[in-house]
Amino acid sequence: MIGAGVAGLATAHALEELGYDVRVLERDAELRAEGAGLTLWPNAMQALSSLGLDDVTSACIRVLREAATLAPDGSVLAMVAHRSRSHSLAVSMSASAALSAS
User: pLDDT band at 14, cuts 50/70/90?
Assistant: First the structure.
């Protein structure tokens, strides 16, 4: 697998679960915790759950009650309020939390 980003690591994990011998190649010498974060909608969380990653994700998520899309100048372009954990709820997971949970 080329790249230790979210897609590369998730794909490597899924392939290992299927019995493949996987090696992840990353150009950086080590994984960094800073500078990254994800906002995931329920379908993405369901996909991570299907990969057997509930323990890891539950250890490092923060439920967002609302989210905003900002223009480069910081003005608000759109706001989304989330009603419940099961309906259109975004979940934020920082890379530092994910790395420390694994």
Answer: very high
- Residue 47 CA to residue 57 CA, distance in Å, equals 11
CA distance 52 to 87: 21
Name every residue whose Cβ is closer than 8 Å to that of residue 59 and which is 6 or more positions away in sequence: 97, 101
**pLDDT above 70 as % of the chain:** 74
Rg (the chain; Cα; Å): 16
- pLDDT greater than 80 at residue 96: no
* Residue 13 confidence (pLDDT): 92
Instruction: State the DSSP code for 59.
Output: T
Cα gap 91→39, rounded to integer Å: 5
